[in-house]
Amino acid sequence: MKRYVASREADAVKRTFTLFSFWVMKKYLAECIGTFSFIFCGTGAVTVHEVMHGSVIHTGIAITFGLIVLAMIYALGDVSGAHFNPAVALAFAINRNFAWKQVTPYIISQGTGAFAASLILKFLFPASDFLGSTLPAGTAMQ
Known about the structure:
Distance between the termini: 67 Å
Number of strands: 0
CATH topology of the domain at 29-122: Glycerol uptake facilitator protein
Shape: elongated
């Protein structure tokens, strides 16, 4: 009886270490770095467009978003799967291509990266009112 209880406790410890092992944490760090880069570059281009009164055209903003996603997929795709978006992680989990137990750590990693990028952009561009947010072009009722 004691051996069975010890074995069950050892399995619980093993699962805990498996969730937070170096190789698994590398995935979370890759998601954090990828999301940070995506938000920093993409939203940074929109913020520069706002602060510099149109110096970056819409094509430049679109190319910035596209190239940073391309670069991050090539750089980090083999490590974490290059989700970089909580909706993508959720969609993969719903489709059973991704383990549900990793959805929450991925979303936390992505949120951390996005929040850090936004904080740095706010520090770099204090004159920006919107920091790259999408706003309606018409009235407030729109």
